[in-house]
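Design a sequence for this backbone.
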């Protein structure tokens, strides 16, 4: 957010006591708050979730999570029409608990549409990154998607 204030409130501080220009009016505050609101409306977290490997623990605009092989699909509940779907995706995998222990995991975004994002997962098995079987032992992750509204 790069909001530029409409009114110079700092300048009011330097005015002499009793000056009518020193007064902060409700109309000025309303204009500032409306400007801040409008600036915030240009970007938004449009999708977020926390998935524990078998169920969604928290979600915002997530319909469901499907895992098959080493591929994960996160389907959105709703598409926000005023956004252009050229969004930023952040996925943080949790450690893989299959194979009897906690193994580090990495993810790679493989697809994104107006309806879902997809990504593959690799786990560290000794010295090698391998494909886990997510249908047997799902892997948890957190996901945040931010989209910028086009004016």
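Sequence:
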């Amino acid at each position: 957010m790069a909001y530029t204030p409409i009114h110079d409130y700092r300048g009011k501080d330097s005015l002499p006591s009793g000056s009518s220009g020193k007064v902060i009016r409700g109309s000025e505050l309303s204009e500032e708050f409306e400007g801040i609101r409008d600036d915030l409306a240009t970007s938004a977290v449009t999708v977020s979730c926390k998935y524990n490997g078998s169920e969604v623990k928290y979600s915002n605009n997530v319909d469901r999570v499907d895992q098959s092989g080493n591929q994960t699909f996160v389907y959105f509940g709703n598409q926000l029409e005023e956004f252009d779907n050229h969004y930023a995706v952040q996925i943080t995998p949790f450690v893989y608990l299959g194979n009897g222990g906690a193994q580090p995991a990495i993810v790679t975004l493989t697809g994104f549409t107006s309806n879902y994002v997809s990504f593959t997962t690799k786990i560290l098995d000794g010295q090698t990154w391998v494909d886990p079987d997510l249908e047997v032992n799902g892997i948890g992750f957190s996901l945040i998607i931010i989209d910028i509204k086009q004016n």
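The chain is about 15% helix and 40% strand.
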